[in-house]
Design brief:
Layout (H helix, E strand, L loop, with lengths): L15 E6 L10 E6 L12 H9 L6 H13 L2
Antiparallel strand pairs: 1-2
Length: about 80
């Protein structure tokens, strides 16, 4: 498997990880993957494969949109 570099968390700047979603319903009979920031719990939705979860993270498709909106607001307030 080719390694995909994950961008740092847009909320806290820490390194994310790809996790297997053990507690979510299986996708096509397999456990799914999600990208998660271990520090602030920002995460993507669950995807069928590693590559899609990493791509969603790098494109900033996170499920914690309230945190991301607050981050964007605070980032733009300093301009």
């Amino acid at each position: 498997m080719n390694r995909i570099n994950l961008k740092k968390c847009p909320i806290c700047g820490e390194e994310p990880a790809i996790e297997i979603s053990w507690n979510k319903p299986k996708i096509h009979g397999r456990y799914g993957y999600k990208a998660v920031c271990i520090h602030c719990n920002n995460e993507t939705a669950t995807f069928a494969n590693y590559k899609d979860s990493a791509g969603a993270w790098n494109m900033r498709f996170c499920t914690n949109t309230d945190q991301l909106n607050l981050f964007n607001y605070m980032e733009n307030a300093h301009e």
